[in-house]
């Protein structure tokens, strides 16, 4: 099938709901400061109601990568489940306005649209309360195989393994990709997932064309303590592996080929949220343009540097403009 | 020939002469603060006479590597020229007390023993005034081929290229090493040397078994701006190349094999003098023990971390004890 879209992204469809609060609000509502806590629908409704003038923006790790891809000028398509409710409509509007294509039909029944209620205190700290709701119910029925077949790359987030139907849908999408010469990219998402799915991810590795992992995730995957041991463990892998190392930059490995790329300079690190998501966006963009691996690494580093220089997980400056200015396009 | 010695080191034989002075001393003697200046014999004698209670210690980049090797428990042999004068005797005594073998006959004629007059001000700044004297006159006559043939590794410093007879002696030693299955290790020594000897060093590269370079030196050698371009340029090299990157650690490349090793932790960086020399000592020690390249890199990183945690270019703690404590021996 001919490729009409650059990247199709599978992930949790979550609305970030930001509310400016004071520290008393955290105490009143029993919110742990500066951390991410999973909450149920009842508590989610309570907190949402308590926020004065909440600001809503489509979020979720993989969706933010789709936004970064669009910001670079790639055609990106997001697939993930919301419910037909006000937040579901908010997700759809907010994601589409970035240029990302999104047309998963909202669920008529079941849990409400996922949201991350972010209580922002005057000191800039972000206390996150996440209800996964409809995002966890993502299933094969939500997937359009033609969307996978028509894309150059399928990008799947490891977070989906935490929901059985979402995992099943992901594996189905990966099989469809392989049947249609769509490259398969995967992110390990979070070091904690390795405790639960290490063996499944190791079994998945030979199926992947591109793997994204930060240093902690990669060490956890191979159960090693040294970064270099990760690199050596990957020598026999056929995938392009992009290992991100925060201020140490990234290392890109592809069989015997290894590239060591420095982090892009940042005047002041404000909020590291979304660094990995934007790195993936920059790197994938480069791959869709057939750039060399080092060039792809630089694009990833640039996108990550942009997003950590301000609050919020989406680029503020169009990444296309930024990358062109650096001579990377 | 059977190998009775681990490493033979060729380098400039320089006595470090440390004097505690005040800032007025720098003004009176017209010394540029915090930098290294080359001086002639007349000025060297003047400054030496002006130092109250000078402290003398055998120094020079390659000799310090020999000291590090001895500190790790390797047999190390230094070859470099001094004159038969008090500083020459001081060099010999000071080097031998570290356990390094040294028996180059002192020159009866010609320039005086090389010295680096280090004016240390109360703020801890070190202003260096170097007279290269006899060290520059090092020649084939000072070299014993049996010492090269009887060693597992020959280690030569790039600084020697600045003196025609010393360069000739170095090339002679390298030829003797190759004829006797002695491995040849070389350090680029200083980025400034690339401006003068880039092509010669590039021609030398296929003759080397081990190359040491810091990031700046390596970029200068290949005339590239990105670290990763150095790495790619080295893909076709048969040498083991150890690239040091200060706080970013080191990258070891050997053909298609690449290791990325982190810097060893340092509580407080006091004086980075000698970091590269001690890295080379640790790395070479590992190679003489047939350790893997990553293991060698960790030994180098540990030795470098020790020497930058205090003033002075020699280890203060026996590196053997330190390395054993970290489980690296």
What descriptors fit this protein?
9-stranded mixed beta sheet; UDP-N-acetylmuramoyl-L-alanine:D-glutamate ligase; 12 helices; alpha/beta; homodimer; 329 residues
Structure, explained:
Two copies of one chain form a homodimer. Chain A is an alpha/beta fold. Chain A has one domain (5-12, 60-110, 133-325): 3-Layer(aba) Sandwich (UDP-N-acetylmuramoyl-L-alanine:D-glutamate ligase). Helix content of chain A is 38%, strand content 22%. Chain A has helices spanning 23-28, 41-50, 61-72, 86-96, 145-149, 164-179, 191-204, 215-222, 227-233, 275-288, 293-308, 319-325; strands at residues 5-10, 14-20, 36-38, 55-59, 76-79, 101-102, 114-120, 126-131, 151-157, 183-187, 210-214, 240-244, 250-254, 257-261. In chain A, the strands form two sheets. The first copy, chain A, has a nine-stranded mixed sheet. Chain A has a five-stranded mixed sheet with strand order 3-8-7-2-4. In chain A, strand 10 (183-187), helix 7 and strand 11 (210-214) form a beta-alpha-beta unit. The radius of gyration of chain A is 19 Å and the shape is globular. Chain A starts with a strand and ends with a helix. The relative contact order of chain A is 0.14. Chain A binds chain B through residues 226-229, 231-232, 248, 251, 256-262, 294, 297, and chain B through 226-229, 231-232, 248, 251, 256-262, 294, 297.
